[in-house]
Amino acid sequence: MALLINDLCIACDVCLAACPNKAITAGEDIFTIDPDLCTECVGHHAVSQCVKVCPVRACVPDPDHQESKDELQAKYERLKALKAA
Amino acid sequence: MGIREKLERLVARMHDTPQYNSQGAVLFVDLEQKKTLKKYLPLEVLKNFLGGRGANMWLLYNLVEEERDALDPEIPLIFGSGVLTSSMPSATRGNITSKSPDSYAILDANAGDYFPSFLRCHGYDHVVLYGRAAEWTLLKIAYEAVEFVDAAPYVGLDNLDMAAAVERDFDCVEREDMALARITTSGENQVLCSGIMGGIKAIWARGGGGAKMGSLKLKGIMIHGAPKDLQPVQPMAKYNKVIGKKIIGTSVIKNALKMVGTPFLYKPSRVLCALGTKNNQQTSWKPTLDADNFDPYRPGMDGCYLCPVHCRNQNDMTPGAESGWGAAALKGLSGNASYDKAQAEVEHGKQRTYNGIHNDGKFDQYDKGDGPEYVTVGKFGPMIGIAEPEQVLRLNNILNDLGLDSASTGSAIAWAMELYQRGIITQKETGGLDLTWGNYELIEKLLFMTAKREGFGDTIADSARAVERGKYPKEALDYRMAVKGLFQSDPHDSRILKAFALGLSVATRGMDHLRNRVTLEINARINDDPAFKTALYKGTVSAQPNSYEGKEYAVRKCENNYAVGDSVGMCRFNTKLFNSPTLPDLNDFATQLTSLTGQTFVEEELDEIGRNVTGIERMLNFRFGLRARDDTLPRRWFEEALTEGPFAGEKIERKEFDGMKARFYTLTGLNAEGAPAIEWHEKLSRLTTGFAVRVELPRPLPGAPEKSVIIDEPVADVSALRRAIQHKLPEAAADLADKSWNVAVNGEMVLSGEASTRIASGDRVTLVPIIAGG
Question: Does residue B389 surpass a pLDDT of 80?
């Protein structure tokens, strides 16, 4: 599944640079993750980078966007192809 | 009594199961016998010393034999993570603790990155290492599994190669599913100014931890496996948001640390003419090292585990590298130029010109890396006469790979350069090396020689102990910028700011700003608000930076706050009083400690715990032979006045300093020898060793100005007690040998059978001079 940022977020911005998919957008109060761009770092890293760096553990699974590892891998391939094009 | 006997006695007081929520174990590791033991600390350690640095001291006090050399394998090396490490934003830290091979005091160094958090996430709060391994060893910890791995393939590797080799051999990635505390060749060669690396740049730097780990033949400690998902308990999670907001809402964090890192501090010290230059012979240096001159080579920032700040500036001088992160971020920040507001607008427009260190278009691994911190800019800039930012960057990257403490190494080189300048040493002693100030080629070469202990590098490797190891004549000590045998940690010449000076003199690990620095002494807004300043430090502190009045209050309060910060694992930069009065404070820590451990804590208790931690450190230092005379400053600061800047003519007046130090002792609860006064000493002893006997003396003795002494090494009878008193007060040996002093136990005179007269903790013993006659 994709990840989401809950209201524990402190808008510290350390997840921005860590996200390999550029799926995170800054906000005044909390940041947001675009589920269409989030692969949970599948294709890039063994560990989800925003989860790894978030100091308040506000990056959690998004129950509305449940995806299997294969689906996330496919999403990664699609995004990669789009980027190359 | 050897460490194994001491350990047996200690673990009898420990437990097989956790004593409070979230408690991790203590892992005892006998490297010589390849044995491990897992135990839990008693609850009273948490309640009186917390964890991390505080609990490390508790362990060291119980296990150390003070007479042994610091590099003796029976002297333990202790890793400890804070109670809140990995559970609170910016609580990423852990300490290493031992007897220092570099200084004459405790070894206690603090670092972050990922290792301390991984250690705690794997279920351990402390690792106690002792015994010399038969062969070089890599200790591998993965939750319950602990392995002694042959480290032969890693011997001879420095920091970057060591991490890469472990990643390759164990199919893991540092900071993803592995954390590694390791030594480099300098640690293998027991270089006294070597540290233990915890990442590309993270280092337990001060006091010679690298040499200590090398003496155990321990090349690294690997924590293998990504931390399991540890969601903090709900009240903690909510309050972590409050703490996180406090941190990132603080001006100095937002505008300086997140943008350029600690090098922003160079300009304020330079403008004040308080920048240690050429071994503190001068105090001002060139603006070429102001932080904005590093803008063209700064691709971004990095940070420790679960930290919202990311204060670690990266550098990349190779062609095509990204750059410009934080460019011009400091422009207009008047708070960063208190003594010359116009300086806040000054920018140098530095361009990227680097073309290899020899300007030949050739680049290598040292042309990129992490850092530098302000300390490295100062010690490898003005302190040794270097003015070019590219040269500082490269030296920084080499230091990180060689695992050298930039503070002690830079100071050792500056000391050598002044001795060379004065003719106290010549090319005969340096092996033909030209130690002229600013000689970049020589300095780069000397770092590699130091790590290998080659040629004159062997002298630098002996750090502040070069005189006692016969490398320099005794007169060299006149120019050694050290306290308690530890070189100054930071570049700030503290002849102006008397609170800084007091802090450096009384810091328990030696001349180090991170133990008690009253950084806000140069904050004009605080100085202009006496009521606020008084409330901040719990006492009236003069607004004048160069006044001696009331500075003891500020140092005491900072020392308490920082000791607690280290013991919960909080980063110093994000602890109230170090960078700002608005950062997380003891009340915040108390709230989160209560939520996490299920034990109740309040702010005032934590303040007292901070004092306890420094108290036990002073008791350890007393055992290592340090006395009030060692709470001092380098000769130069008492005898040579500043020659430039707004405070030209300023120095440390010895009488004023002595008065300030005496007030600090009284406020802290220390006796005239700088040790905890008798009631407090007795309490700390009972809490630490579980044994305390108070002995009243016939008169004040050397080392015992209060006419009494606490014996806290468990003894069984009066004969053993007599030996323990002599052991505790070696300088009073002649007095204590007086055979006319009888012993009374709880008021009962012992007239015979001392060896069979039992002594128990809590007894009151009196030495009574007998008047013989008819």
Answer: yes
Please give the CATH superfamily to which domain B3-224 belongs. Answer: Aldehyde ferredoxin oxidoreductase, N-terminal domain (3.60.9.10)
Q: Which residues contact B296 (CB under 8 A, 6 or more apart)?
A: B323, B324, B327, B350, B351, B352
d(CA B643, CA B640): 9
How open is the CA angle B539-B545-B548, to the nearest 5 degrees?
60
Instruction: Supply the CATH number for residue A33's domain.
Output: 3.30.70.20
Every domain of chain B and the residues it spans: 3-224, 249-326+341-487, 502-668, 691-769
Distances in Å between the alpha carbon of B186 and those of B109, B130, B195, B408, B644?
17, 20, 8, 13, 38
Chain B hits for A12, CB-CB cut-off 8 Å, are 244, 247-248, 308-309
Nearest to B231 among A47, A55, A57 (CB): A57
Is B214 in a helix, a strand, or coil? helix
CB within 8 Å: A14 and B307: yes
What is this model's ipTM?
Answer: 0.93
Query: Do B39 and B15 meet the contact criterion of CB atoms below 8 Å apart?
Result: yes
Peptide bond preceding B372: is omega within 30 degrees of 0, i.e. cis? yes
In 3-state terms, what secondary structure has residue B133? coil
Residue that the structure tokens 């964890």 belong to: B51
For residue B310, the chain A residues in CB contact (below 8 A) are 14
Question: CB of A18 within 8 Å of any CB in chain B?
Answer: no
Distance CA B503, CA B63 (A): 28
CB contact, 8 Å: B244 with chain A? Answer: yes
Q: Nearest C-alpha of chain B: how many angstroms from A26?
A: 14
Give how far Cα A57 sits from Cα of A17, B469, B648, B663, Å: 16, 51, 51, 45
Contact A55 B176 (CB under 8 A): no
Closest-CA distance of chain B to residue A30, Å = 11
Minimum CA–CA partner of B85 in chain A:
A55
Three-state SS at B483: strand
> Residue B339: its pLDDT value, please?
67
CATH topology of domain B691-769: Ubiquitin-like (UB roll) (3.10.20)
Confidence of residue B229 (pLDDT cuts 50, 70, 90): low
Answer whether B240 sits within 8 Å of A53, measured CB to CB.
no
Maximum separation of any 2 CA atoms in chain B, in Å? 98
Rounded Cα distance between B483 and B468, Å, is: 15
SS3 of chain A: helix, strand, coil, percent, to 5: 30, 10, 60
User: Hey, what's the torsion of the CAs at B529, B531, B534, B537, to 10 degrees?
Assistant: -70
Are the C-beta atoms of B695 and B711 separated by less than 8 Å?
yes
pLDDT tens digit string along B311-322?
999 999 999 999
Nearest CA in chain A to B171: A46
The residue of chain B with its CA nearest to that of A55 is: B306
pTM of the full structure: 0.97
pLDDT tens for each residue of B1-51: 899 999 999 999 999 999 999 999 999 999 999 999 999 999 999 999 999
Do the Cβ atoms of B177 and A17 come within 8 Å?
no
CATH level 3 topology of B502-668: 1.10.599
Using the structure block, give the residue that is written with the tokens 């996200």. Answer: A19
Tokens, residue B351: 């361009």
The CATH T-level fold of domain B249-326+341-487 is 1.10.569
**CA dihedral sign of residues B633, B102, B466, B202:** negative
Q: What is the 3-state secondary structure (H, E, C) of B705-770?
A: CCCEEEECCCCCEHHHHHHHHHHHCHHHHHHHCCCCEEEEECCEEECCCHHHCECCCCCEEEEEEC
Q: Does A54 touch chain B (CB under 8 A)?
A: yes
Q: Domains in chain A: how many in total?
A: 1
State how far the Cα of B475 lies from the Cα of B556, in Å rounded to an integer.
34
Supply the range of the domain harboring residue A75.
3-84
With an 8 Å Cβ cutoff, are B306 and A55 in contact? Answer: yes
